[in-house]
Structure to design on (744 residues):
């Protein structure tokens, strides 16, 4: 198979046009949603039955406590629900899930990772998929959104410890943003061919008259939120390569649009909430630049491999094509989605390396729902700090002094993900029994391990698929990495929001480093590349780079 | 009860009611709208041959014998109760061997030189259920199918053209021939004879 350049460019152009048209209206809607004082009737009912005081403005520590309590409880519920699958309704004859698999899966879906250490067809019935996993697809995305909104509030507010109400943010993100969008998206997906029913169809095949059952299930409803919430957990094992999740090239393009939609709209929300749209445009510019460059590099890496080595074909879908797979593979790893429409394990070496590099950037271009914006804003704090040092002034970000307290939080934030990813990789690669989980030998085996821990630490969830159905030790290690990779950064971001909210605003002066415009965008892009991806270069050299050179 | 305990109780109640809306009402709503707007697709794009349900137009099927078009290799044996890629790395000896073996098999079956076998014919799809093949692979199979089915090459070529995705897909993807719907058309023709 060969990459069709015309198809690549036109599809990318269509995405740019659609996202360009959508990001300001959706950003404005998001800003209104999270600043409005009105509660909808449904929300008031939900607050009443859940015992939530929607009027309370929470201290950042209370916000953290609510978030952690909700996430911990969600993990327990998803875990127990899988263990009890055999006695719960809608199980399609599937019994209890293996406890290690259930643990990994519970953490994976609550952390918005959606690493799948199981083959869904053989493991889960409609009940677990619909009532546990799809529900977390909504809620984990809304949690990410809430943290981003709280950070923006920290920048806007002054002389307070309060950063908003977690329950209100969670509810509004879920019911005002994700649910309406997912409903529309799911119907579109059904029209393209994604199934939504309550059972399979028994058939006899054409050539051999063998009895088969065409699978069924509530797939479209899960597919829509899987992309919109940058979750990525497939209803089927093959994820978005499966014809019932992604029937044709149109649905493939639509799914890429869905997974980029909210992350690319958050800068517009941010600009409006801080009262300076230029701030939003600057952040958006950096995101778009990384996305376009990385997508083009991916196309180059895949396209140029067509007539070398094993060529391009293994793991690709003929009905989708090479260009749509290059676009999808980049979008899914630059966001925290991790859905795949091509087997990443079989991508050409440098293309697989690029998928890893995208995640190693910290998923900021545009990143996951919420996590992309707060990830890039944390890097903006670093850029402001470095810029301030260069001009010899106390650094300020939107009138907030970036002193020792915020910088300590930011430093720990930046170190968390690489430490988790690289420690997990080296531990696994160093212990032969664990390393044996990677089916490939040599550099590709190392790539499989590196990809797994990079994916887990960044809450992506895509994989070099050969390693996913590992035994309990690796499943448990990855669960720990996913958990820490999600909640340590979140707590740090909320602490940062609290520190910033406490400060009085300093008025801008002539010497203030502007945090908008091309100069700052360049600085932010450079800083992002330096403090995130570069940390991983030695590891990348051992894996995909070595593979690419060895041949 | 301490602060965490209260938050846990709130969490439990919130999660319960959110599940009713997100886990039950939402998929049910999508089901209802889907059954009204696009029942055929929502139920799996099932095709029938001589009144019998014969498969989904979106899924590949195992093919034996000379009278039908073969889909691409599959890591799951074209079994729709599973789906998977081979997950072999690009330089892995196992992949090199699999490609060589598939190439030899296709060349022998179609009686063509191995070099003329296209990539999609020798590589497994990401899902193992991709029903589509390249026009080149379809063209390779036309003489054999024409011979075995007794339909004549021109008639089979016309059928292939009918089941090739149209030029609009040059923007969206790449041209492809759906083996499942093509084989269903062949089966229908044969049943009519």
């Amino acid at each position: 198979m060969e990459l069709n350049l015309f198809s690549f460019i036109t599809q990318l152009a269509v995405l740019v046009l659609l996202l360009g048209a959508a990001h300001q209206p959706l950003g404005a809607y998001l800003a209104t949603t999270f600043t409005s004082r009105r509660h909808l009737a449904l929300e008031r009912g939900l607050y009443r039955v859940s015992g939530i005081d929607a009027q309370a403005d929470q201290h950042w520590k209370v916000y953290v406590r609510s978030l952690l309590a909700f996430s911990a409880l969600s993990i327990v519920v998803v875990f127990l629900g899988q263990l009890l699958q055999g006695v719960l309704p809608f199980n399609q004859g599937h019994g209890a899930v293996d406890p290690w698999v259930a643990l990994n899966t519970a953490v994976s879906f609550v952390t918005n990772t959606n690493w799948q250490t199981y083959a869904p067809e053989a493991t889960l019935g409609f009940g677990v998929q619909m009532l546990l996993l799809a529900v977390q697809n909504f809620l984990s995305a809304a949690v990410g959104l809430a943290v981003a909104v709280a950070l923006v509030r920290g920048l806007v507010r002054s002389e307070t410890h309060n950063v908003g109400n977690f329950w209100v943010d969670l509810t509004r993100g879920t019911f005002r943003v994700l649910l309406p969008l997912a409903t529309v998206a799911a119907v579109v997906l059904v029209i393209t061919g994604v199934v939504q029913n309550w059972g399979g169809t028994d058939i006899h095949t054409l050539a051999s008259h063998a009895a088969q059952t065409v699978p069924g299930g509530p797939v479209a409803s899960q597919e829509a939120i899987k992309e919109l919430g940058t979750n990525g957990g497939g209803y089927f094992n093959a994820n978005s390569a499966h014809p019932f999740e992604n029937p044709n090239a149109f649905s493939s393009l639509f799914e890429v649009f869905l997974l980029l939609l909210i992350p690319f709209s958050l800068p517009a929300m941010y600009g409006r909430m801080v009262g300076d749209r230029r701030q939003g445009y600057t952040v958006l510019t950096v995101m778009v630049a990384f996305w376009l460059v990385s997508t083009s590099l991916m196309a180059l890496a895949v396209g140029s491999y067509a007539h070398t080595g094993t060529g391009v074909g293994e793991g690709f879908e003929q009905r989708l094509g090479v260009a749509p797979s290059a676009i999808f593979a980049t979008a899914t790893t630059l966001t925290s989605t991790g859905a795949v429409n091509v087997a990443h394990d079989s991508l050409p070496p440098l293309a697989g390396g690029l998928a890893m590099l995208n995640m190693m950037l910290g998923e900021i271009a545009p990143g996951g729902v919420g996590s992309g914006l707060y990830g890039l804003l944390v890097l903006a704090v670093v850029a402001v700090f470095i810029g301030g040092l260069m001009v010899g002034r106390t650094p300020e970000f939107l009138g907030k002094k970036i002193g020792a307290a915020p910088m300590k939080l930011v430093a720990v934030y930046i170190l968390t993900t690489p430490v988790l990813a690289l420690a997990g990789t080296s531990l696994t690669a160093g212990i032969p029994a664990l390393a044996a989980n990677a089916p490939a030998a040599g550099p590709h085996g190392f790539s499989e391990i590196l990809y797994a821990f990079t994916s887990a630490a960044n809450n992506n969830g895509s994989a070099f698929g050969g390693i996913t159905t590992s035994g309990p030790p690796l499943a448990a290690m990855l669960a720990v990495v996913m958990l820490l990779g999600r909640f340590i950064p979140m707590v740090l971001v909320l602490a940062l929001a609290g520190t910033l909210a406490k400060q009085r605003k300093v008025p801008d002066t002539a010497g203030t480093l502007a945090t908008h415009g091309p100069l700052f965008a360049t600085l932010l892009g450079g800083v992002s590349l330096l403090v995130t991806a570069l940390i991983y270069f030695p590891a990348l050299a051992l894996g995909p780079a070595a593979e690419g050179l060895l041949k | 009860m301490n602060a965490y305990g209260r938050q846990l109780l709130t969490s439990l109640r919130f999660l319960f009611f959110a599940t009713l809306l997100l886990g039950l009402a939402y998929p049910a709503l999508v089901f209802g709208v889907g059954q009204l707007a696009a029942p055929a697709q929502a139920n799996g794009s099932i095709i029938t041959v001589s009144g019998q349900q014969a498969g989904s137009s979106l899924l590949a099927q195992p093919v034996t014998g000379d009278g039908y078009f073969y889909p691409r290799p599959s890591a799951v044996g074209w079994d729709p109760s599973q789906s998977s890629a081979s997950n072999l790395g690009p330089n892995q000896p196992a992949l090199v061997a699999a490609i060589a073996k598939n190439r030899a098999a296709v060349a022998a079956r179609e009686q063509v030189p191995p070099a003329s076998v296209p990539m999609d014919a020798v590589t497994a799809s990401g899902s193992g259920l991709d029903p589509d093949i390249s026009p080149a692979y379809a063209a390779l199979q036309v003489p054999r199918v024409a011979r075995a089915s007794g339909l004549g090459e021109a008639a089979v070529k016309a059928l292939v053209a009918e089941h090739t995705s149209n030029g609009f897909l040059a923007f969206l993807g790449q041209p492809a021939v759906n083996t499942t719907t093509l084989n269903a058309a062949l089966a229908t023709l044969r049943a009519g004879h």
Summary: The CA atoms of residues 271 and 374 of chain A lie 13 Å apart. Chain A has a mean pLDDT of 95. Chain A touches chain B through 120 residues (CB under 8 Å).
